[in-house]
Amino acid sequence: MRAGRDVGRNIADAIELIDEAADKGAEYVQTPECTTLMELEQPRLMAETRPEDSNPALAAFSEGARKRKIWLHIGSMAVKVGEGRLANRSYLIAPDGTIAARYDKIHMFDVDLGGGESYSESANYQAGPTAMLAELPWGRLGLTICYDLRFPALHRALAKGGAKFIAGPAAFTRTTGEAHWHTLLRARAIETCTFVLAAGQGGLHENGRETFGHSLIISPWGEILAEAGVDPQVISADIDAAYVEQIRRKIPSLTHDRDFDVVVATPSKSPHLVHEP
């Protein structure tokens, strides 16, 4: 997607793409982070955001999932959770329109990339307290959002919790995306032996932010099964959940963790080398 500042238009754009995916036979559909709004200015962000129980976007997406009989994963949307505080929340909606899982982004994107490009997500959003797994008909789905991608421990915990698929919806900046997007997503797929599904925002947005796009579907072996460009579009792939167990039998690294201590080696204080007889 290339979400802008008009929530209604963003919802309509998302529904159009969701319908296109469903028309192509998709049973699970994922949208990017910030599906309903891309806004950096705090007053406008707060003014355009609603609590979950009165959120028109959530009602529209629930109806869309029910109408098309799909598992609809809204990568994330801003939700008001208190006075001046938001959650960057992901929703997995079941084919009957009910909310099957919620996940609030754990890791806040507080960075200074240089050249005047900096972000402080924690200024407006509160971090989520827990990781989240959801049951799909084909196996468990681990939920993450964007910056969570840089934290392997979260992904490993989801895989050890039974995830066969890990979702990584994002609004990666062009700067970081060009450098790290493909590498990080393939690494997370390989080290967890899961399918990684990552829908991304792409292009120059109304608020001036530029995102990388390149939505990806990646196999547990690290193969790219489908990739988008920068412009809004739908990509799809046929997924065989049994492939996860095939790869885990070949490389059972999830069962090989060991506890260990970290020791810092320091030079000997003795000026002479000592040779044992």
Topology, element by element:
Elements (H helix, E strand, L loop, with lengths): L6 H17 L4 E3 L11 H6 L8 H13 L2 E12 L2 E9 L5 E6 L5 E5 L2 E4 L11 E5 L2 E5 L8 H9 L2 E5 L6 H19 L2 E4 L3 E3 L5 E3 L3 E3 L5 E4 L14 H9 L27
Parallel strand pairs: 1-2, 8-9, 9-10
Antiparallel strand pairs: 2-3, 3-4, 5-6, 7-8, 10-13, 11-12, 13-14
Helix pairs in contact: 1-3
Brief summary of the model shown:
The protein has one domain: Carbon-nitrogen hydrolase (Nitrilase/N-carbamoyl-D-aminoacid amidohydrolase, 4-Layer Sandwich). The protein is 26% helix and 26% strand.
Describe the 3D structure:
With 277 residues, the protein is of the alpha+beta class. It has a single domain, classed as Nitrilase/N-carbamoyl-D-aminoacid amidohydrolase (4-Layer Sandwich). The protein has 6 helices and 14 strands. The strands form 4 sheets. A 6-stranded mixed β-sheet has the order 7-8-9-10-13-14, with helices on one face. The radius of gyration is 21 Å and the shape is globular. The mean pLDDT is 95.
